[in-house]
Specification:
Elements lengths: L10 H6 L2 E6 H19 L5 E6 L3 H16 L5 E4 L30 E9 L3 H11 L6 E9 L11 E5 L6 E6 L1 H4 L4 E6 L13
Helix pairs in contact: 2-3
Length: about 210
């Protein structure tokens, strides 16, 4: 079993690292608007649409897109919340007591056009897990994917249908999405370098 990490480094590590802001609140708002417009255009309106945000930051992004869709199309779109912990392909390696959070999908997914929403698309393993989670709820007419950031480095044949911003990164970098409604700080997206601990020098034998 491939145990590649699905998520970003711990947020406390990212908070301490040197990083560069690549999106501020205004740019994020514009990206959300564009995502909503593209979703409506592709699906010819909001009929049959439902959004499902992947915990954690996919949820507030999904809610923002839904609000924007309602502004544009005058139609309310249901929003669900999906926790993928039990569907991860590294579930058995993430500790004896992984944190399980509530999945809340209060509408039938069968025959819906489901738009999965996440903050950052990376290896694709998070999305693979989310697809398994959605299928457990029924048989959608179609599943689409919207992400705020696509940073590349896919390990699975998964691509986003809607992308807020594509960012070229190295494997030694992280992408941090910060949202006011989740983190209590101003909206922003940062890119920084992961600083790996230096290996202790080998003692010289005399």
């Amino acid at each position: 079993m491939n145990t590649a990490v699905l998520d970003a480094p711990p947020r406390e590590l990212m908070a301490r690292a040197a990083k560069t802001k690549i999106m501020d609140a205004v740019k994020i708002e514009r990206a959300i608007t564009r995502l909503a417009e593209e979703i409506l255009e592709r699906n010819q309106g909001a009929v049959e649409l439902a959004l499902v945000g992947i915990r954690t930051r996919g949820v507030p992004i999904a809610k923002r897109i839904a609000r924007k869709i309602e502004e544009i199309d005058r139609r309310k779109v249901p929003v669900g919340v999906l926790d993928i912990t039990l569907y991860r392909d590294d579930f058995t390696t993430i500790g004896s007591q992984p944190v399980l959070r509530k999945t809340e999908i209060a509408f039938p997914v069968t025959d819906k056009r489901i738009v999965l929403v996440d903050d950052v698309l990376y290896t694709g393993r998070t999305i693979r897990a989310a697809l398994d989670g959605i299928i457990d709820f029924g048989r959608p007419k179609e599943i689409q994917l919207a992400v705020l950031i696509d940073r590349g480095h896919r390990e699975l044949p998964i691509r986003a249908d809607y992308i807020g911003k594509s960012v070229q990164t190295s494997l030694d970098e992280f992408v941090q999405v910060q949202l006011a409604d989740e983190d209590g700080e101003a909206d922003a997206v940062y890119v920084g370098e992961i600083h790996k601990p230096a290996k202790p020098a080998k003692s010289r034998k005399h």
